[in-house]
Specification:
The protein is 54% helix and 5% strand. With 228 residues, the protein is mainly alpha-helical. The chain has a single domain, classed as Tetracycline Repressor, domain 2 (Orthogonal Bundle), CATH 1.10.357. Strands 1-4 form a two-stranded parallel sheet. The protein has a two-stranded antiparallel ribbon with strand order 2-3. The protein is elongated. Pfam families: NADAR (PF08719).
Length: 228
């Protein structure tokens, strides 16, 4: 796999990451792209301590487990929120909507957390984002070495989190391009309006001078009437 052409960015995984006793891979919460990164997110009026808190909270609410939802919201860190969320019994509604919930959570993070948006948007367009965990849904389904040594088509996992990161990156760049075009268009309109005002002013001056020539007097002179 040629990483120079398609660089891989590992989401929130420290180089020394290891699997904990519970089977969860310890994410690097210092990486702003990680869902474990501590940040305040306000989603539907509820303040969360990280994207992971928000995602697991919404899962608990939609699955009708209010007690777990409150525990997740108050969890000290993202790993604790994840552990609480995995205990919530899922339902069909959640399974069919969790992808959209994750996307909306990341979009909110992109808007509300500037450092996340900046790091995401300064990545190369060819970058493949991946969470190198044994999670077959959100990650590559492989460890770091296995992820690097196999093409994405051969990863065991679907890497849904990485795919969503890429999608949000493209949407944000498209939005920035659209805003830039709008700004340029507005600036051009302002310049045209300024030019039109200048032309009107010049025409008014020329008319005044023409009227003065016809009357044979200077309309700005107080003594013109006496001289005649």
């Amino acid at each position: 796999m040629d990483l120079s052409e398609s660089p891989i960015f590992f989401i929130g995984i420290a180089r020394s990451a290891s699997v904990s006793d519970s089977g969860l891979l310890q994410c690097c919460e210092n990486d702003v792209l990680s869902n474990f990164y501590p940040c305040e997110l306000d989603i539907f009026g509820i303040k969360h301590k990280s994207a992971e808190h928000a995602f697991q909270y919404i899962k608990a609410v939609r699955c009708g487990d209010r007690d777990s939802a409150n525990s997740i919201k108050d969890a000290d860190d993202a790993l604790s929120a994840l552990q609480l969320g995995t205990k919530v019994k899922s339902n069909d509604q959640w399974e069919s909507t969790k992808g959209t919930v994750m996307e909306e959570t990341l979009e909110n993070k992109c808007v509300q957390v500037p450092v996340f948006r900046d790091k995401l948007c300064t990545s190369k367009q060819s970058t493949t984002f991946v969470e190198a965990t044994y999670n077959n849904e959100w990650g590559s389904g492989l460890n770091r070495d296995g992820t690097c040594n196999n093409k994405p088509d051969h990863w065991l996992g679907k890497n849904k989190l990485g795919v969503l990161m890429k999608k949000i990156l493209k949407k944000n760049r498209k939005r920035k391009l659209s805003d830039s075009v709008k700004t340029d268009r507005k600036q051009k309109q302002n310049e045209e309006q300024t030019g039109q005002r200048s032309i009107v002013h010049t025409l008014q001056q020329l008319r005044a001078m023409s009227d003065s020539d016809v009357s044979g007097c200077n309309p700005d002179s107080d003594s013109s009437g006496d001289e005649r």
